[in-house]
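tool_call: predict_structure(chain=1)
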Amino acid sequence: MSQLHFATATELASKIKRREISAAELLDHFLGRVEKYNPRLNAIIWMDVEGARARAKAADEALDRGEDWGPLHGLPMTIKESFNLAGSPTTWGRPELKDNIPDSNAVLVDRLLAAGANIFGKTNVPINLADWQSFNEIYGTTNNPWDLSLTPGGSSGGSAAALAAGLTGLDAGSDIGGSIRNPAHYCGVFGHKPTYGIVPGDGQALPGVFSRPDIAVVGPLARSAEDLALSLDIVAGPDHFAAAGWRLQLPPPRRKALKDFKVAVMLSDPAAEVEQSYQDCLQGVADALARAGATVSDTARPDIDTARAFELFILLLRAATSRRATEEQQDYFRQVAADTKIDGDSYLSRMARGVLLQHRDWLGLDNERAIMRHAWSEFFQDWDILLCPAAVSAAWPHDQAGERHDRTITVNGQQQYGVDQMFWAGYPNMVYLPSTVAPAGQSPEGLPLGLQAVAAEGEDKTAIEFCRLTASEIFGFQAPPGYE
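tool_result:
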């Protein structure tokens, strides 16, 4: 793709180092696009233009002296609003935190800066990072660049929208329930949810919270799989507690060509029925893989009850986020848990039980998860990738009415609770597996559709490389119309 703003971060950093464009010129190019297109998208909600221009100037002067800051030297990029960046607001979309200005950076931010990045802005999120939409009272609503009436996803929705529209060179998000993966899918970009624990989340937390939450990860979003690999190499590694005792060495990709991959394909599940046109798109990818010589199966699965896996995920997810529940909310959840008229298999019931979970009961669920981790490990002895959806459909209309768990979306002509599609986020994430989302095609309406490539624990580079190859040989990044 010839336009500068749709080039990959890898290409842009290389252009800066080869002096084909200065860091200052590239920054101004992106700032001009933010001025032109961001008002309709509301993807980037905070910028430090003066500081970014000073860093761009310093990056160019460093090259004049023969200094190389690293693989992202002078690259203009943005980050999700929830990361601490000294001097910028970090609110998580919560009105009471609108004046929260940290004086230090998240570990991920420090590592990106140390690699030479020029972070010029922050991207929008939903309140508490807890929606597959991105809106809040402080910053308003972020729109999908493919159709402004649709969600860009959440909670890293601003990140994916900014990348798709060519407003930034690279971005970083977080994911506990699909928050990197569903925005990448809805906006037609790439996102990687790392293996749990390999990228420190320090500084991507509410004020006063320092412990690592269960399931949650931080990771990159980009316009190419190459950028995901580059960014992951930069930000992965031990936190400061573990740094004295261990080093991270991720194994290389298992395969170098699509023909060598062994791919299990899962198109839908009773827990979260997938739109038929989306299934057809992923089947098209599977067929292309088979034509390329890959071993493809539509029946291979880990030996796991998917319905129970989904229930377990919601219970552990809501336990992991229960710290945010106020006393009033806990009282409400106690009423829900005691109400025999509420369906025990509903998201609301599971949410209530998760928030109220006793530690002894959590230990039992964690042990059940460990059994599932063993089942996944056995599965990946024979298979390299599980190819599956990232959600149940393409992006859907903004819906900010009522409670999230009551909202519905249309799937195959029927109404489905929007929260049910979290199955596709939790199936790999609850057991700590890495997964990469990459463009797979478009819906009949012309909206982007993404594939989710799940790999074995610690084999992040296999998932990313698989997506690099599919993008090269089957379907890659396509820019939304109107942002040329």
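agent: The first strand starts at residue 44 and ends at 47. Proceeding to next step.
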